[in-house]
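explain this.
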Amino acid sequence: MVRIGIYGYECTEVTILNGYSIVPLYKNNLDVKRLSKDESCYHLTAFLVIDNADKLIIDSFIFDLEAVLSFVSQKDVLIRNKLRDNEDYFSLDDDFPIKLDGYRRANRERLIIGDYICKESTSNFIRLAMKSLSNENAEAKAFRKALFKVIEVYKTREHFIDVSYYLLFSALESLCRHIKDDFGKNCAVPITSVLQKYGFNVYQDFPSEPHQSIMTYVHLRNALFHNGMMEKEVRTPTGDTVVYRQSEYYSTFSRLLPLVLLRYIDFDDDYINWNSWLDRQRI
């Protein structure tokens, strides 16, 4: 058995998974929420317990699990430092780090409801996400790349909207193209098809509802990628001219991507508001 510290992760209930578990150090949700949200450092909040390390490639497994926990938290989570055999969770040696210093952490609300409200939500997500990451087909690899691109946006210390937008759009485009096996010229076609299948209220090209029109985000991607511009002037079918600006659409788009990844792995705990990318109501 191997026991490794988890830093910056919010949990209050033991999470038992396939051959491993997450054991929290705190039962009071307010205490662990405060520690996990600390922007200046990563506090030790839990331990990863691997029942049989011989069956795993430890470094690869931890790399994936860190990503999954970071996705849940919408901020970076670290898994570091093995317990010695003589140590106990509440009786650590003096040299065991109880916090890790680092650059300013991003501070966002977690994506999935906490285990103090629903014990199964997070554990079900971890199980589904780790299963998807373990697959080796082309579509699963596209999901892996998409997940890590989204997490990279969460982890960034300095927010550059152009870099973040490019990461998010390329994540969505690649995943949807692989799902539909559509690598044609117009990426709006497979993106719209996948999102509509997942139940999102979107259209391929609908200027009267620009936040729900996939072409809005395609125009912004093209303006950014080809011209280095943060806005795009477009002529509508009625002959009018509209200007789409990153500052008006980035936040909506950034809320959509995590929901798409949840749909991809078939996660639904009945708490998620799938329209939250538009109405901003998470539950």
About this structure: Strands lie at 2-7, 15-16, 20-24, 41-50, 78-82, 99-101, 231-235, 241-245. The chain has a mean pLDDT of 92.
